[in-house]
Amino acid sequence: MTYWENGVTASEAVFVGASNDSETTAFRYREGGLWDEVAVPGGETRFTFAETGRDVSAIRLTDASRNGGLSLILDLDRKVVDLQEAPGEPWYVRYTIVAVH
Asked: What are the angstrom distances between the C-alpha of 40 and each of 1, 27, 36, 68, 74?
């Protein structure tokens, strides 16, 4: 079983904070299997994703309204957020995960 530093696994996570060289963001779980990507600081919702799967090491999200299905993997094992801009496109690391609750 894979644990984040505070003992939380991806199967239990409801908040994931992430950043890169130019921005900080957070992903917050809400009712109905939805996740909001929110601005940090500020907390305004930037995008909403549907959870398409999760296990102890990763959470998979998709926003079907963008590019036919923009997808993210919140990968707690690797401590990164992987992004696929459209189905069939290559995956790349978008953010480094800095917090999980």
From this structure: 30, 10, 12, 27, 17
* Three-class SS state of 88: coil
Residue 27 covered by a domain: yes
pTM, entire model = 0.93
Q: Which tokens hold the place of 25?
A: 């963001």
Please report, in tens digits, the pLDDT of each residue of the chain (101 residues total): 555 667 788 888 899 999 999 999 999 999 899 999 999 999 999 999 999 999 989 999 999 999 899 999 999 999 999 999 999 999 999 999 999 99
Query: Which tokens sit at 26?
Result: 């957070």
Q: How far apart are CA 11 and CA 58, in angstroms?
A: 8
Residue 79 covered by a domain: yes
Q: Would you say 54 and 11 are in contact if contact means Cβ atoms under 8 Å apart?
A: yes
